[in-house]
Amino acid sequence: MKYLLSLPKNSIPYFHNVTGLSREGWFASSDPIGDKPGSGGGTANILAELWEQEDNSNFSYWLKKEKRVIIHSGGRGRRLRAYAPLGKSLLPLPVFRWSRGQHLNQRLIHPQHPLFDQIIEKAPENVNKWTRIHDQMFHATYLKGIGKDYKKQEIKAFELLREGILQPFKEKKVSPCINLISDQIAWGRSPVRFDIAGGWTDTPPYCNLYGGKVVNLAAELNGQLPLHCYIKATEKPEFIIRSIDLGSEEKITTFEELRSFQNIKSSFSIPKAALALAGFLPEFNKRQFSSLQKQLIHLGGGLEIAILSAVPKGSGLGTSSVLASTVLGTLAEVCGLKCCYVFRINPVPLYSLQDSAHTTNLHNK
What we know:
With 365 residues, the protein is an alpha/beta fold. 35% of the residues lie in helices and 19% in strands.
């Protein structure tokens, strides 16, 4: 790992002698004279200078070779003006009696860089991913605020978010099978949920960065679990997905058709995504097949999947998220994927709501 430090121009020739830091591990430069590039421009400038000095053949390759920590210390010092010509990182620092490993000639940079080492060491591997997502959304919000086209940046942000969510599944691939015989039907069902507190804290990217803290109540409607998924094996190498409540149907025979789960307007984006995560796309499967039909022929046939939601969309009862769990859990059971566990607790009546149209019995899970 290498440190790149921006300083006032007059301090650069003396930096290594004053600090005793090695020339191999530390590179000092200054912002362009007369300009105020800011931290972003200063970062680009010091990277370009080091790149030209080390290897100016391929910038992308050079940038990925090693980690680099950039410290901006060349700004105007408004708090301690007497030390502004030195740069903030060269500020003399007194020795603290209660600390070890210090010396009389120490500068601010000496206790700083071990702290930076610890931050880099303990930072999660995906920290750069979230920074990129934030930057794209910030750019989109700025363009939207000034009345310019922002869709490209917004779409890119959601693409990065989706890739970040899917990356652990791509790293831990699966090998699905079909554990159903011709006269069997797998049936999964779930309750809806009432959000009491913490809503949306369990939604990416917030939950990935800070963790979600949610209090929910699961509920039956009229004494029944309202979200259902039925899966049946078929001899044909294809997937048939049906929505009972919407009265629609779709046939899937190719990887490209299955990969369209990214279209959230599709009636079947949830079961398509579940099939993808279950290993029916190459990026999630340990084995590689040239086509979806060849994969299904290898497994002995395809699947017919029917979903039913007895709750209208937009009800606020978590219909889509719970239905996704229901489909994924049922599919995991059918395909022999030991990744989903379903627990059911005997319901305890809470209260009932009655009006002129219908009666709804709510039960705590």
